[in-house]
């Protein structure tokens, strides 16, 4: 099992390296719901603040949850980057994107969200 996770961990650290360089710590965890569904969480934590990419087991969609400045934010990357999502969807019209392609796309969207040295209110410096 460790052998399978290692390349995934390396891929995440490579694609989201800009967050790790900014002082974030990467964690991979899951949360079991009361309806016996699992939510797999890619978490980038910096102090008390964090950015989560959450996927419900069996789900094809990943949601973004941010805890910044003592409050939860639920920014929709799909609404903020309609043009990029449409291009990604068209590029994968006949083939389903693999996990690495999805992670690379999400990393690029998060990188584009950096403004004024912060990401959703979390300072990067």
From TrEMBL:
Q: What is this protein called?
A: Uncharacterized protein
What domain of life is recorded for the organism? Answer: Bacteria
Please report the organism this UniProt entry assigns to the protein. Answer: Candidatus Scatosoma pullistercoris
């Amino acid at each position: 099992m460790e052998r399978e996770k290692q390349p995934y961990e390396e891929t995440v650290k490579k694609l989201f390296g800009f967050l790790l360089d900014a002082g974030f710590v990467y964690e991979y965890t899951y949360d079991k719901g009361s309806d016996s569904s699992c939510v797999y969480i890619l978490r980038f934590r910096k102090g008390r603040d964090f950015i989560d990419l959450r996927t419900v087991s069996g789900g094809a969609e990943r949601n973004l949850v941010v805890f910044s400045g003592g409050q939860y934010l639920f920014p929709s990357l799909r609404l903020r980057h309609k043009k990029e999502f449409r291009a990604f969807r068209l590029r994968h019209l006949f083939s389903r994107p693999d996990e690495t392609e999805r992670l690379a796309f999400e990393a690029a969207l998060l990188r584009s969200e950096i403004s004024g040295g912060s990401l959703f209110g979390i300072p990067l410096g």
